[in-house]
Amino acid sequence: MSTVLLAILVASTCSVVGVIWDISWHRTIGRDTFWSPPHLAIYAGGIVAGLVSGVQVLRATFGASVAARDGAVTVLGFRGPLGGWLAIWGGLAMATSAGFDNWWHDAYGLDARILSPPHVLLALGIIAIQVGAIVTALARQNAGAGGASLGLACAWSAAIVIAMTGTLLMNLVGYANTMHTSLYYIAAALPFPLFLVAFGQGTRLPWPATTTAALYMAMVLAMVWILPRFAGEPALAPIYTRVDRFVPPPWPMLLVAPALAVDLVLRATPTWPTGRRALALGAAFVLALLVVQWPFGAWQLSPGARNWFFAADQWEFSGRVSAWRYRFWRWEDAVAGAWAPLAFAGGVLVAIGVASATARVGLRWGAWMREVRR
Amino acid sequence: MDARGAPLTPPLRRAAAGAAVALAALAAPLAAHVGAPDQWFAGPAGPYAVRVLIRDPGVVPGWAEVVIRTPPGVAQVGAAPFFWATGPGGAPAPDAATAVPGEPGLWTVRLLFLKTGAYGVRVTIDGAAGRGEVTVPFAALPRRTLAMDPALGAVLGVLGLVLVGGAIAVIGAGSREGTLPPGERPDDAARVRGRRAMRRGAVALATGLGIVALWWRVEDVVYRRNLYRPWEAAARVEPGPAGGRVLVLEVTDPRWTDRARRDWAPLIPDHGKLVHAFLLPADGGPSLAHLHPVPVDSSRFRAALPPLPAGRWRLFAEFVTEDGLPHTAVASLALGAPDTAWAPGDADDAWHAGPAGDGATRRADLGDGARVRLVGPAAPVAGAEADLAFEVENSDGAPAEVEPYLGMAGHAVVAREDGAVFVHLHPAGTASAAAAAALTVRRLADTARGAVAGRLAAGDAHAVHAAHATRAAPARLPGSLRFPWAFPSPGRYRVWVQVKRGGAIRTAAFELQVAPGAPARG
C-alpha cells in the first residue's frame, strides 16, 4: 500500500472518529469550542488529506514523473488523481464551513444540532475526503497492484462512509427505540443500499459488501466500547441526567445481514436486467435488515442490554429522560391506531421502493467503481 | 468592604466579533425589561459585597460574559449556570473566573447558556472570610440576529463559487478521464461524456443549493419569529365602583393566555406584588405612576388610577413567572381629564405629576421639604457602566433618611423618551428577587405547575433570598442611593427615583442626555 493511500485512509479515519467523538462530546460535556479535541481530529483529517493531495497535484502537474501525470485527471488545467481532487475539494469545503458555521453561531446561536446548513457543508467536505479515499483505493486496486490488502483498503474506506452516514442519521437509524417503526427502514433504505451495492461491485473481495459492513460495525463498536472508558462530565446546564463517562454512540446497525443479502443477490443475478436486479437488491436489503433489526431493537430495550457490551439506554446529560426511553417510538401507533400493523407494512413497502431506487444508482456507481483507474 | 462603587466594565471589551458584525435592524423592542437585556446585581454573597454583570449574548445557545467585582482578599471566584427546570442541582461544576490583570477584585468568566428560558447563575466567592454564594437570575432569550458582514460575505461567496465550480470540474474530470487507462488521452466520446456529467452535476448542485437556500430562509424566519418580544396587552380606564377611575390591564398575549403551552408558568409575587405597573407619559414628560394591579381573573388586572393628567400614556407592566422568568407587558392608553378622587388600591401605589428636576443643579424636590440630588452619572455614555446615584437631602443640604419602600431604600425607573428602553431598577440591580428565589428553591422533582410557587408562598427556608431580604429591613435607611447600571443606547432618558418618607412614597424626576459610546447592542 502506498504512503499516499495510507495517509488518505488515516485522514479519512481521523475525520469519522472525530465526528463520532464530537457527538459523544456534545452528549457528555456539551460545551463546544472550535478547538475541542474532536474538532481537531476532524479538521486534522481534512488538513492531512488536503495537503497530501495538494502535493500530488503539484507533482502530477509540474513534476517530472510521467506515471504521476498519466495517472491523473485534468481539473482547471491542473493534473491530479481523482481521489486527490475530491480530498482537496473536501478540505476547501471544510474550511469554508468553519467560517460559515462561526457566523451561524453568532447569528442564530451555537446550534447543538447535527443538521444545519454550515454543518451540511462540513459533512459534504468530510464525505468528499472519504469518497476521495475510496477512489484512491479503488484506482490502485483496479490498476492491478497489491491484492487483498488493497481490497481491504477499499472496504475500509467504504466502511468509513457508511459510519459517517449512519452517524449523521443517528436520530433515525441509531436508537433502538426507532427499530419498530417503518421510518427506520425507509431512512436506512436511502443511503445504505446505494453504498453496499456500489461497494459490493467495486471492491474486489470474495464478500465485498459483507466485509465492508463488518468493518463498519467493528469501527463503531470500537467507539462504543472505548469512549466510555474515559471520564467526562457536563460543563453546561441544564443537567437532567448526570453522566461521568463519555456517552457512547448507539450500537451500530446490524448491516452485515443485509450486506450478506446484497452480496448473495449480486452473485446470483449478474445477467438480470438492471431494474429487476435493483428491485431484488432493494427487497433483499430491507427484508434482511428487518429480520435482524426488529428483534435486536427489542433486545436493546430490555434490561439485559444495559451493560458495557450493548451500551443500551445511554442518554445525553441535557435530555429529560422519562418512560419514553424504554418504549418504541412509532408514528404508526400515533397515526393509524388499530391499523398500525398495516401502516407498518405499507412503510416497509415504501422502504423497499426507496432501497430499489438507491440500489439502482448503486449498480451504476459500482460499475464505474470497477473501472476507475486514476 | 463595599465594592459597589468600583465599575465593572472599563477594562473589558465586547467580543471582537461583536464589533465586526453589523446589527440587523430589529422592529420589536427588546424585553424582559425593555431594551436593556444585560443583568446587573449588587449585593452580598455571604460575607462579600459583590457586583455581578451578565452580558446578554443575544442568541441561544450563546456565550455570555459574566463580570464579577469582589472586595480585596478574595482568592477564587467561580460561576455556574443552572436551568430553571432542574434547579441548582442541575448545575455543572463552577467555572473559575480569571482575575483581570491590573484590576484588583475584577474577575471575568464566560458561561454558555444552552436553552431558552430562565437560568440562575450561581456565583461562588472563596477568600479570607470563607465561602460566599449568591444566585443571580438571568433570562436566556434570543433577542437579535446578525446580518453577514460584507467582507465575510465576500470571502464566503468566493469560496462558495470555487467550491461549486470545483465540484463541477471534478465531476467532469472523473467522468471524462477517471476510467481511462493511464496515459490514454480522452477521445471525443469521453469529452461528450464529461460535458454531460458536468451539466447533470450543475443541475444537481443548483437543486441542492436551492434546497439549502430555502432551508436557510426557513431557519431564519423561524428564528426571527421566536425572538423575544414583550407580552402583548391592552389597557383601558373604567369608572370605579365608588367613584374615581380604574385602570384595567388585560394581558392578551398567547404566551400568557394559552395555558396549554409547555412553557406556561403561573405568576409569583415580586416584592409582594403580582404586578408592578408603570404609567409613563408618551411624550416623554416627567410624570409617573407606579401601581400594583390585582387580578380580576386569569388575564385581567385592575388598580385604582391616580389623578394623572390627560394625555397618551405608555404602560409597562412587570411580572415574574414561577420558572423565574421576568416578563414585561406593554400597552398604551389615553387618559381624559383627571378625577380628583383616588383611593389607592394598594398602600404602595404611588404617582407623580410634578415638574422635572432642575437640569442645572440636578436637584428635584420631593414635595415634603426634602429634595433628591442626582450625583451620577455626570456625563452618561451608552454602554459605559455608570451607576445611577442619588442623595436625599434636607432643604439645607444635610443628608436625609428614607424609609424602606417595598423592602429597599428606593426604586429607580429608567425610560428612553421614545419608550424603546424601560427598566425598573433596585439598589440590588436589575435582577428580580422573586426570580432568584424561585430558581433557588426549584428541585428536579418539581414538575407540577405551582409547586414552587406554593413553597415560596409557604416561606421556604431558602426563599428569602439573602440579597433581597425584605422583612429584615430597618425602619430607617440612609438616603444615599446607588443603582448599578449602564445605559444601553444613546438618547434622551427620563429617570425617576422613588423613596418613602413619612409614610408617603415620593418621586423625583430627572432628564439625562446619554451620548453615543462604544458600539453597543440594542
What does this structure look like?
Chain A is mainly alpha-helical and 374 residues long. Chain A has 14 helices and two strands; from the N terminus they run H-H-H-E-E-H-H-H-H-H-H-H-H-H-H-H. Chain A has helices spanning 3-28, 37-62, 66-70, 82-108, 117-142, 148-168, 170-173, 182-189, 192-202, 208-226, 256-268, 274-300, 331-336, 340-371; strands at 73-75, 78-80. In chain A, helix 2 runs antiparallel to helix 4 (82-108) and helix 11 runs antiparallel to helix 12. By secondary structure, chain B is an alpha+beta fold. Chain B has six helices and 29 strands. Chain B has helices spanning 16-20, 150-177, 188-225, 254-257, 433-441, 451-457, and strands at residues 39-45, 48-54, 62-69, 74-83, 95-96, 98-99, 106-113, 117-127, 130-140, 231-239, 245-251, 267-268, 276-281, 288-291, 294-295, 300-305, 311-321, 326-335, 350-352, 363-365, 371-376, 388-393, 401-402, 411-416, 422-425, 477-478, 480-483, 491-501, 504-514. At the A-B interface, helix 3, strand 1, helix 4 and helix 5 of A face strand 4, helix 2 and helix 3 of B.
Tag the structure with descriptive keywords.
heterodimer; A: 374 residues; mainly alpha; 14 helices; 67% helix; 2% strand; globular; B: 522 residues; alpha+beta; ten-stranded mixed beta sheet; five-stranded antiparallel beta sheet; elongated
